[in-house]
């Protein structure tokens, strides 16, 4: 029987790849998107994760379409990269509000149905930057590091109810966001990756598929790096 899945920020990049991977495995997948059009072949719900009301409506629509949401992937995220002395306060707070507080809103709404079902899977999409750091990304790194503490605490809260919470930490991934970097910037990054290449979005999606599968039933509170070795030792 297909499980009801909700992927935030699921209309492009890593989120879309995760949504398509889970749909191909037989799950009933809904995706949220903030702008543009919903992806073809997936149930799309317009949602800004900085709004609790939007998040509630997105879950209600997904539940009406596919039943109680059993798997949630909190993937929606933004960057506003600037060196700290030049960073305006809203560049910091907006990134935290979307990437970290947005995940809080999504996870809080998800637990309502999961606690009732006494089962569920929550996956938070963090970043290698959470542990490695990155100049010009104090806001982004803080938001992604926050997901680790948030997710591990939530794993302790929900474990007795059969709900797992895990964190995936992608490294440098080929997406629209990274395509904006010039060749020299991309080469400088891949030189530091032991596997010598960027990840594809599918590399991340397959790890998420594992974490929400029966094979990962005894994994919770884990931080899984999918970074080609970039963050080794952190």
TrEMBL record:
EC number(s) recorded for this UniProt protein: 1.1.1.100
UniProt entry keywords in alphabetical sequence: Oxidoreductase
NCBIfam families (UniProt xref): PRK12826.1-2
Entry keyword Coiled coil: no
PANTHER family: 3-OXOACYL-(ACYL-CARRIER-PROTEIN) REDUCTASE (PTHR42879), 3-OXOACYL-[ACYL-CARRIER-PROTEIN] REDUCTASE FABG (PTHR42879:SF2)
Molecular functions (GO terms): 3-oxoacyl-[acyl-carrier-protein] reductase (NADPH) activity
Family: Belongs to the short-chain dehydrogenases/reductases (SDR) family.
UniProt key word Isomerase: no
Gene this protein is translated from: fabG
Protein name per UniProt: 3-oxoacyl-ACP reductase FabG
Protein origin, superkingdom: Bacteria
Residue span(s) of domain Ketoreductase: 3-176
Listed InterPro entries: KR_dom, NAD(P)-bd_dom_sf, Sc_DH/Rdtase_CS, SDR, SDR_fam
Protein species of origin: Sphaerisporangium rhizosphaerae
């Amino acid at each position: 029987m297909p499980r009801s899945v909700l992927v935030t920020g699921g209309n492009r990049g890593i989120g879309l790849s995760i949504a398509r991977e889970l749909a191909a495995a037989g799950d009933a997948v809904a995706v949220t998107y903030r702008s543009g059009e919903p992806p073809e072949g997936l149930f799309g719900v317009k949602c800004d994760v900085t709004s609790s009301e939007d998040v509630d409506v997105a879950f209600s629509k997904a539940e009406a379409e596919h039943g109680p949401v059993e798997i949630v992937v909190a993937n929606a995220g933004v960057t506003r990269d600037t060196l700290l002395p030049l960073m305006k306060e809203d560049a910091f707070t907006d990134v935290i509000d979307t990437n970290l507080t947005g995940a809080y809103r999504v996870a809080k709404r998800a637990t309502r149905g999961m606690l009732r079902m006494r089962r569920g899977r929550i996956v938070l999409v963090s970043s290698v930057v959470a542990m490695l750091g990155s100049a010009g990304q104090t806001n982004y790194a803080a938001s992604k590091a926050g997901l680790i503490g948030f997710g591990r605490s939530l794993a302790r809260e929900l474990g007795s109810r059969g709900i797992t919470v895990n964190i995936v930490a992608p490294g440098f991934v080929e997406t629209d966001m990274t395509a904006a970097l010039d060749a020299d910037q991309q080469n400088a990054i891949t030189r530091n990756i032991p596997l010598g290449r960027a990840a594809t979005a599918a590399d991340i999606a397959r790890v998420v598929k594992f974490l929400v599968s029966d094979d990962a039933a005894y994994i919770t509170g884990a931080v899984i790096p999918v970074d080609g070795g970039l963050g080794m030792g952190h």
